[in-house]
Amino acid sequence: MSDQNVHKAGFTSSGIARGSLASSIMSGEAKSFGGGVPSGGTTATLQEMGAKGSTHSSGFTSSGISGGSRASQMMSNEATSCGGGVPKGGTTSTIQSISMGGKGGRR
Question: Where is it mostly found (predicted)?
Answer without folding.
Answer: membrane
